[in-house]
UniProtKB/TrEMBL annotation:
<protein>
    <submittedName>
        <fullName>Mitochondrial glycoprotein</fullName>
    </submittedName>
</protein>
<dbReference type="GO" id="GO:0005759">
    <property type="term" value="C:mitochondrial matrix"/>
</dbReference>
<dbReference type="InterPro" id="IPR003428">
    <property type="entry name" value="MAM33"/>
</dbReference>
<dbReference type="InterPro" id="IPR036561">
    <property type="entry name" value="MAM33_sf"/>
</dbReference>
<dbReference type="Pfam" id="PF02330">
    <property type="entry name" value="MAM33"/>
</dbReference>
């Protein structure tokens, strides 16, 4: 009789594993049958052009050139998974926005976060594009700048086309792309 007990335990474990497989199959079937982002605002690229988007890549790159010759580049990727998060989108979008004036090698770089709100995390002046990866002093943390300066920098980005339409587009586009 002692042998029957291990066999019964293995049998029970197999049934539990089978139940788990059925539950997982049901969840996958449900996820595939529903579009959780269908009621979302689609947003708009505005005057930006989608410059880079490969199926094997996780990021997208947008570019806009103004009549003045000024160039704005946006690189966006989904951030890490956030547990216990309220809201429709389970992940934020991490964005780098670079603004370059014509006939200058220097540029401004903004590190942004788009979730329920659009936030600037850091703002940098880069003497040249080759400085992006170097350990150059990048100034004080954005969070310790005065509230008026923080708001002015946010308004600057909105004036350059980094507004609600674009951020809504990126949130929806990157989440749909990941779901696909």
């Amino acid at each position: 009789m002692p042998r029957v007990s291990p066999v019964l335990r293995q049998g029970r474990k197999a049934f539990r594993d089978l139940d788990l497989v059925k539950v997982l199959q049901s969840e996958i079937k449900h996820e595939l049958s529903t579009d959780r982002f269908q009621d979302s605002q689609s947003g708009s690229l505005g005057d930006f052009q989608l410059e880079w988007e490969l199926p094997q890549s996780k990021d997208v790159v947008l570019r806009r050139k103004l009549m003045s010759g000024e160039e704005i580049a946006v690189s966006a990727v989904l951030g890490p998974v956030m547990f216990k998060r309220d809201g429709m989108f389970p992940r934020d979008v991490l964005m780098k926005v670079c603004v370059k004036k014509p006939d200058m090698t220097s540029m401004l770089q903004f590190d942004c976060n788009v979730g329920s709100e659009f936030d600037i995390r850091n703002a940098y002046y880069l003497p040249s594009p080759t400085c992006m990866g170097l350990s150059v002093y990048r100034g004080p943390s954005f969070s310790i700048l005065g509230p008026q300066l923080q708001e002015a920098l946010k308004e600057y980005l909105v004036a350059k086309g980094i507004g609600e339409g674009l951020t809504d587009f990126l949130l929806l586009h990157l989440h749909k792309r990941e779901q696909g």
